[in-house]
Design a protein that fits this description.
alpha+beta; five-stranded antiparallel sheet; four-stranded antiparallel sheet
Length: 303
């Protein structure tokens, strides 16, 4: 009886051992499975992170390429501007997506697809910019050539205008009247209206300028205005401030003006000038102008 009980106890102990062995083997299998799965998960996590970093770098390269284009001296048309705007919006979306803590493989594949699409866009975009640069270079060359031609034309035109002005001036000078045989006399006009020739300043109240006009076939046979300017011994012009005329390209005051009829026939002319002031001793300068130029000058000394 004891032998049977002992045999039964040994059998129970063996079953326990077998059970423990089975449990240990099962635990070892589970641990091995979990270890292998963890290795797979770690490897996948590392792979995904590496792929994210690579995609981020690709996006940054694309953005740098677009920035480089903007630095070029190229005027973009509306279509290229709109295309670049859409590309930058897509880049912003990709950046935001790649900032996520974890991405599924599907999300990574989609990001990869979009980046490839952006690469193709940038390549096409750069080709279009290159064409624009070439066109702009050609247009710049044409513009510079045209600008040079215009400058040459303007310079030639200005030279012609200058020559024309000089020619016109020469013609005017050549056709203007020139005085000859200018003679200045001093007179005292008496109360009865008669004039007496004098030489003293104290006795003088009128100057008479007699002059002829040199023959000139270029001068117009018409009425010409003669302007007289009288300069006193102190160098002052004796003239009314309202008496103005133009000569030698500037405005001048005159002492008196007369109008003559010129026929190129040797006729002599005379200007009487009464001094509104008192004559003083010294030399008086007499200047005659016609047609905008000095036609002659003389002087008279009063004692």
């Amino acid at each position: 009886m004891q032998t049977q009980e002992k045999a039964a106890d040994n059998k129970v102990d063996r079953n326990k051992v077998y059970f423990l062995i089975i449990v240990i083997i099962a635990l070892l299998g589970i641990n091995g499975y979990l270890y292998f799965k963890d290795r797979q998960q770690t490897s996948r996590f590392v792979t995904i992170n590496t792929e994210k970093d690579r995609l981020k770098l690709e996006v940054e390269k694309i953005e740098v390429e677009l920035d480089r284009v903007n630095l070029l001296n190229v005027t973009l048309n509306d279509r290229l501007i709109e295309e670049q705007k859409l590309a930058r919006e897509k880049i912003a979306e990709l950046k935001l997506a790649l900032k996520k803590g974890e991405l599924t493989q599907q999300e990574l594949d989609e990001a990869h697809k979009q980046i490839n699409s952006l690469k193709d866009f940038v390549k096409s975009y750069n080709n279009q910019i290159a064409i624009l640069e070439q066109e702009n270079s050609y247009l710049k060359t044409e513009r510079d050539s045209l600008k040079t031609s215009i400058n040459d034309y303007n310079e030639q035109t200005e030279n012609l205008r200058r020559e024309n002005r000089n020619l016109n001036r020469k013609v005017k000078v050549g056709s203007s009247l020139k005085a000859s045989n200018i003679n200045v006399s001093a007179f005292r006009v008496k109360d009865n209206g008669k004039s007496a020739l004098v030489t003293k300043a104290s006795a003088t109240n009128k100057l008479t300028i007699d002059f002829g006009i040199a023959p000139n076939d270029l001068a117009e046979k018409t009425y010409h205005k003669i302007f007289l300017r009288v300069i006193d011994p102190a160098g002052n012009l004796i003239a009314d401030e309202s008496n103005m005329f133009e000569a030698d390209g500037q405005q001048m005051q005159y002492s008196r003006a007369i109008e003559i009829s010129y026929n190129n026939d040797g006729t002599s002319f005379k200007i009487d000038w009464i001094n509104p002031r008192t004559f003083i001793k010294g030399n008086y300068g007499i200047f005659l102008y016609a047609d905008g130029f000095l036609m002659g000058k003389s002087e008279i000394e009063l004692r």
